[in-house]
């Protein structure tokens, strides 16, 4: 049975996302899918790993893509949903493109770590993207296999290249980078901009493989955009005060926002909240994804954050949270009013299919 999508639905999706980015859609985007569809084919032997790097290098790229194809064929795409895949090699794989070692964590908790091949004084570190590194070549092989298999029917997302100081922290682990901010601030800035150049070289190199057929741009959070899009981050920023964030992080973030047509920021944890005002002052930043973090109140409990983002004219990305029988969209409407700059991304099992359909119909996303 073919995948539950076609070129006509892609035309609709691209139109709706284009209008949403322009602020002219008049409703929230509901990127939803429902699991449990009959794929009409046997399940492949290749396992479904959350991290693509867990597939041994001996596993052919087309076998990985075939597994993705099977998983997508088990879903129905609802409202603004569309088929997409994400070559996930861990947050900050740019470090592995520049000589760091990629280490897959031990099961059952899949994760990826990056370590420097050897620790160096910050003054001796230099960054350059190596397009022929083993991990860059692996990702490009998978992208070519995806292009050949789907020819644009499936949106292929950019791998998680990482944030500016996050990548640098791979090479200066522990408290070393924090001390460098005081002892060698000019070296930190030098490497930040070297990482910036390498990041963009990697972005363009990987994108060129799939660009001829990809419907648009997506990243590890798949918000479809016809202009270059990425969800930027600096998790290291939770250890910085606002002044240091503005000095060491914000200039590079702002430069990437200017280069991207549509840029979001991953605001991860309460330690990032002191930087929200500064981030919202970047004109080219289009939106914010707020993740309160483990042990914190759930997403509906932060009206002051959403009001601030909305008041700044930025978009908001959410997960489909329910609280006391009320969907996050209903709660958010009470907190900020209009929902036209909001996108909810999520999936559901077959037992929730009717509920998802009713939700999408309520907000006019099924036309």
Rg for CA atoms: 21 Å
Termini separation (Å)? 25 Å
Please tell me the overall pLDDT. 96
Strand content: 15-25%
Order of helices and strands: HEHEEHEEHEHHHEHHEHEHEEEHEH
The class by helix and strand makeup works out as alpha/beta
- Which bin fits the share of residues in helices? 25-40%
Number of helices: 13
Say how many strands there are: 13
Outline: globular
Q: What summary fits the major beta sheet? A: 7 strands, mixed
Structural summary, described in words:
The protein has helices at 7-21, 61-73, 94-97, 134-150, 164-171, 176-183, 185-210, 242-248, 250-259, 276-280, 303-311, 328-336, 353-362, and strands at residues 29-35, 75-79, 84-85, 101-104, 112-115, 155-156, 229-232, 262-268, 285-291, 315-318, 322-323, 326-327, 342-348. By secondary structure, it is α/β, with parallel strands linked by helices. The strands form 4 sheets. The chain has a 7-stranded mixed β-sheet, sandwiched between helices. It has a two-stranded parallel sheet with strand order 3-6. The longest helix is centred in the middle third of the chain and has 26 residues, at 185-210.
Please write out the topology.
Blueprint: H1 7-21, E1 29-35, H2 61-73, E2 75-79, E3 84-85, H3 94-97, E4 101-104, E5 112-115, H4 134-150, E6 155-156, H5 164-171, H6 176-183, H7 185-210, E7 229-232, H8 242-248, H9 250-259, E8 262-268, H10 276-280, E9 285-291, H11 303-311, E10 315-318, E11 322-323, E12 326-327, H12 328-336, E13 342-348, H13 353-362
């Amino acid at each position: 049975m073919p995948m539950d999508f076609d070129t006509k639905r892609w035309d609709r999706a691209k139109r709706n996302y284009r209008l949403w980015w322009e602020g002219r859609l008049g409703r929230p985007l509901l990127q939803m899918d429902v699991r449990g569809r009959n794929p009409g084919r046997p399940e492949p032997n290749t396992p479904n790993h959350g991290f693509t790097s867990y597939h041994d290098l001996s596993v052919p790229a087309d076998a990985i893509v075939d597994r993705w194809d099977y998983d997508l064929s088990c879903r129905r795409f609802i409202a603004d949903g569309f088929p997409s895949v994400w070559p996930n090699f861990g947050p900050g794989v740019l470090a592995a493109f520049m000589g760091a070692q990629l280490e897959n964590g031990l099961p059952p908790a899949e994760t990826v770590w990056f370590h420097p091949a050897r620790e160096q004084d910050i003054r001796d570190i230099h960054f350059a993207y190596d397009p022929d590194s083993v991990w860059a070549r692996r990702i490009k092989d998978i992208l070519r296999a995806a292009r050949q298999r789907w020819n644009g029917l499936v949106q292929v997302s950019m791998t998680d290249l990482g944030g500016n100081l996050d990548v640098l922290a791979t090479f200066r682990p522990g408290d070393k980078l924090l001390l460098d901010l005081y002892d060698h601030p000019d070296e930190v800035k030098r490497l930040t901009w070297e990482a910036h150049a390498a990041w963009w070289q990697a972005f363009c190199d990987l994108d060129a493989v799939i660009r001829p057929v990809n419907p648009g741009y997506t990243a590890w959070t798949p918000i479809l955009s016809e202009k270059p899009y990425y969800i930027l981050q600096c998790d290291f920023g939770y250890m910085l005060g606002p002044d240091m964030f503005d000095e060491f992080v914000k200039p590079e973030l702002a430069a990437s926002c200017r280069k991207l047509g549509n840029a979001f920021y991953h605001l991860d944890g309460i330690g990032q909240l002191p930087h929200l005002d500064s981030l919202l002052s970047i004109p080219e930043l289009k939106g914010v994804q707020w993740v309160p973090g483990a042990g914190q109140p759930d997403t509906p409990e932060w009206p002051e954050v959403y009001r601030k983002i909305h008041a700044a004219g930025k978009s908001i990305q959410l997960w489909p949270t329910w609280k006391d029988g009320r969907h996050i969209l209903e709660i958010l409407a009470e907190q900020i009013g209009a929902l036209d700059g909001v996108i909810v991304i999520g999936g559901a099992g077959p037992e929730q299919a009717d509920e998802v359909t009713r939700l999408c119909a309520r907000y006019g996303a099924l036309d």
